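Obj: model holo form, ligand = adenosine-5'-diphosphate.
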Amino acid sequence: MIQFERVHKNYRTATRDVAAISDLSLAINEGEFIAVRGPSGCGKSTLLSLAGGLVLPTQGRILIDGQPISEMTAAERSSFRGDKIGFVFQMFHLLPYLTIIENVVVAGNGVTSAEVRERAEQLLSDFGLTDRLTHRPGELSAGERQRVALARALLNHPRLLLADEPTGNLDPENASGVLELLAHFHEQGGTILLVTHHDRAAGYADRSLALDQGRLVESGAVETTT
Ligand code: ADP
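Output (holo structure tokens):
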């Protein structure tokens, strides 16, 4: 689905040139659940941003369904992201002034059709949040907020979920709840690239990768705990 071919990503600032990703080759296959681990600053978020076409490589190629990202226009990349990819972040990134249902519906690319609303309500119901639809994010627990963020990410039936430390701010019980929802998406054929510090979270994946200073240092199958 996504192939990295000898990808480098450097960030140039006024004072320094940082090699965030160095010579990384990786195939993310359709239906795979990949966990990425590594210390802070090793390039995990940059890897997700590259996979989602949010940033472009400095060197090397990234292919999406065989098409090089560099040959896509910004509009094509954006449309691919909107249609095929869901994002989940450690800090949830919900809009505080919108209700829960509005926070999910907003991912429908501005289309608030009855169908989008129905899908949003279904997801929130599946995630145990039916009685919270008109609440605002500030009234929810961290675990509930992450479930809302996941519902928003899944609204458009993405093929790929890019998750950046989605359990990083959750207690073990809520973290397990979110991981179970990710596992369910994977069981239904979804592809996941999960950045995590937690061994337990990585235990849900088919394959575990480790990054160190922008380089892939370990890659292997992991035993599942499910
Ligand atoms: P991680 O997610 O593993 O913490 P990041 O991908 O966020 O790592 O960062 C990798 C390296 O790139 C770090 O040294 C970080 O300081 C640097 N970096 C990340 N984003 C930028 C940016 N926009 N400008 C400059 N340096 C950046």
